[in-house]
Amino acid sequence: MSIRNQRILTFISALGLISMAGSLYFSLYKGLFVCDLCWYQRICMYPIGFLAFISLFLKDDKIRYHIRLLSLVGFAIASYHVYIQFFSTPSPFCAVGRDCTEIQVQYFGFLTIPLMSFISFFFIAVSTFFIKKEK
């Protein structure tokens, strides 16, 4: 595996694991409830860091397809979550009593948890397109 692919997979692995640690920090340490859309995003994000990390040792560049799929699905969910949160639109995907439009954390006046997820999925998805096929 080329040095370039190793660096990209290291970046993806680090971003995935940091995103996972951040989501666990907000839910377990800060005690914030996790809405349904956040759970769906977690389902997509958690495997990404581990898949990228393991592929470094296995020297498997084909993992980019799996990571790309997970990140694009997560990106779509995060996009929808950001939309309903910023425009306070009710969602049929959120359970009764769990409001996905509630902003629990906001940094710099605009950076919410779903927006952080959106940004992470975006950078991971874009990074997968730079992994070159090895011969």
List the keywords.
single chain, 135 residues, mainly alpha, two-stranded antiparallel ribbon, 3% strand
Globally, the shape reads elongated
Largest sheet: 2 strands, antiparallel
Q: Which assembly state applies to the chains in this document? A: single chain
Q: How many domains make up the 3D coordinates?
A: 1
The end-to-end distance, rounded to whole angstroms, is: 9 Å
The helix content, as a percent range, equals 55-70%
- Helix/strand class: mainly alpha
Overall average residue pLDDT: 87
| Biggest sheet strand line-up | 1-2
Order of helices and strands: HHHEEH
Strand segment tally: 2
Count of separate DSSP helical elements: 4
Ranges where pLDDT stays below 50 over 5 or more residues in a row are none
Query: Strand fraction band?
Result: under 5%
Work out the radius of gyration: 16 Å
Characterise the protein shown here:
There is one protein chain. By secondary structure, this protein is mainly alpha-helical. It has one domain. It has helices at about 5-30, 35-60, 65-85, 115-130, and strands spanning about 105, 110. A two-stranded antiparallel sheet has the order 1-2. β1 (about 105) and β2 (about 110) form a beta hairpin. The longest helix has 27 residues, at about 5-30. The radius of gyration is 16 Å and the shape is elongated. The termini are close together.
Record the SSE blueprint:
Layout: H1 3-29, H2 36-58, H3 63-86, E1 106-107, E2 111-112, H4 113-128
Antiparallel strand pairs: 1-2
